[in-house]
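Page 47, continued from p. 46.
Same chain as before, 369 aa.
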Amino acid sequence: MSARRLSSPQPELTGHHRLLVTLARHGRLAAAAALFSTALRTTRALNALLAALCSSPSPTLLRVAPFVLLRAAPHAAPDAATFRILTSALCRANRPAAAADLLRCMPALLLDPDPRHCRAVLASLCRCGPAGDALAFLDDMRRWGVSPTRPDHRAVVDALLREGKPAEAYEVVAKQMDADGVAPGLPEFERMLRAFSAGREFEAVEEVFDEMLLRGLVPDVGVYNVYVGALCGRGDLAGARRMVACMERAGCPPDVRTFGVVVAGCAAAGDMDAASEVAREAMRRGLRWDSPALSELVALLRAGDHAEKARPLLLEILRQGCAAGVDASALRQLIGEGGALRADEEGQCAGVVADGDARPCQLDAERLC
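Result:
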């Protein structure tokens, strides 16, 4: 049997349909609308006219679309394609709430919202609308039998965190994802740990960390570093150092960033002797600060306004614990920002450069500013 017989050919457009499509494609929208109103009220013609209206860059024509729908009734009932055309146009126009309201009309017309359209509208709500609207639309999707996926949940969590609502975001991670058959993983829990730690909600940090362990998730070094940073942030330096030891026993050795977080925590507490001890422990383990890790350490110290009193320690790290030789000008910018280096520090800088046999370690300017 020929391929032509196997395929179902599209029905030929009538003369009126051809004329309407031609008028719409050439921007003769008034003539196309007049033809539709007087002679050609079919669903196919409705969709062709709406597609032309919605593809126009003019927002005025988009506002005409509801009147075209009303004019079509009851001769041309909207179908799934009608709603796809309109919701896509509304999302492009940054009007996702209107697109969501339109999809809510579909069940009353005995039409099932398409999962792809639902996810497109949800993504637009997360980008442009209030996060509460995105949360409400998730409930609508469930009622329509459209199960939210991991990317859907992540988009909603991101929207909530952008609005400063970590508690609501954690509700999505800890409860709603499970209810939708999507088990939250380390990335979701790490995101929540960072959000609560940044907001200094340390009890919530403990709750998230415990929940993660109860679910059998094994933290990686990135997750541990966030948790250790939260312990330092609440002033529990002893607990932070115990956690570093626990990492070793758990088979997840601390990296240089872990030690950098504890160094900054000790400096923030005014205990520079402890900070030096932690830094030397990292060097005894053979860990070396590369450019990003060193920049992060300096940024942490500056954030707490402790960089000045940590200058001797930073010079020691640069001389003994850096992964490669450091460019002298970058070193001056790092250590001497806000004032010239002292003579003894200039000498140490020169010594670092002279001793370094690897390529220059270019410091991350963004983190240093």
